[in-house]
User: Fold these one by one.
Assistant:
Number 1:
Amino acid sequence: MRIKPKKSLGQNFLIDKNIIKKIVELEHINSDDFILEVGPGTGNLTEFILKKNPKKFFVIEKDKNLIEVLKKKFEDRINIIENDILKISENEISDSQLIVFGNLPYNISTKILTKWIISTKKNYWFKSLVLMFQKEVANRIIAKVNSTNYGRLSIISNWRLNVEKVMDISSSCFYPKPKVESTLLKFTPKAKYFSINYSKNLEMITRIFFSQRRKKIKNSFKKIFKNYRTISEKLDIDLNLRPQNISSETYYKITKEYENLRS
């Protein structure tokens, strides 16, 4: 069955075997590992992962046509979850931590990543994430303070995860060929991270600040704190700065202050 990629689902299938091999080799997969692949497409990456003989292999796919292809190609060697990745509860997939691979649809990649970070409570359900993003999005994830790309995505992604840029991938490695370049990132949970009670508070705080990206942070402080001057002095923050001038650690501290005042 020849599959025509669906533009509505952001389908661009990775077809370069050299790149696929490099992606699989990023993790030392063995017979004890549980794997999850998000958006397996026609199974090009799936095929190479199976050669590593993982203990259990789950794939999440919502396209019924692709599911039929995967069933015929791999039979019972993989466990197919027919669902939307944004609607599923990942903690219910497996009791064991998962190694996750994903060529994420460009149109929902940030939603997926943010969901995985924000919805996780104390312990992560994954051991690592090896994910493909549009290059522009990847640059926002790995951006440093005081840079143009630095923002909410950088701050939230780096809160509890170590983020490593693996490589840029040319559009010619995909079918159909997208109009943009891609970047592969690897995420691993941090052993130690800044303690915040509710991750959604960090999401809310950063949203307020970066909705006025070009304005001084004094405006955002006023929205969050009645005693905004006291808080800014306590945290030694210059209210004349702009959102991109404040480190991730400072945003975590602001979030903690917000939680302390509400408790």
Number 2:
Amino acid sequence: MKNILYKLTCILIFLIAGISSSHAQIVTSYGLQSNPWENNQLIRPAVLAKMISTNQKMHIYNIGVVQDIKGAVHLGAASEKENLEKLRKLLKGLPKNETIIVYCGCCPMGKCPNIRPAFQLLKDQKFTNAFLLELPVNLKTDWISKGYPLNTETL
């Protein structure tokens, strides 16, 4: 009986340790998904709006199903393989140090199905100046309501 209790205790400790460590790996500041970006790869809306207004050289990709920010190329939901492939083709041949910004804004970042596959692609392709537009709530709240520029063709 003592041997069985010992084994059960060891199993219980092992399970608790496993749950704790897996939980630590997936809990992030944006929810329960693992993020392929670092905090310094997030760009705030006001910063991007200023970059747009000063005509800084960059590539902006809308990888969601929302309105296009001024200068953005609309690709569609990056959670769909064909749209992720569109992004891959656009990136092909670009210098690895180009400034590339992706965004979605369909929903809160913790729930967004599009930003992680797109940013992972940038990471896999070894882009050194890649950023994700930080839209904690959505594009409407964090960009449009603040009066930041949109492509006029999409209005």
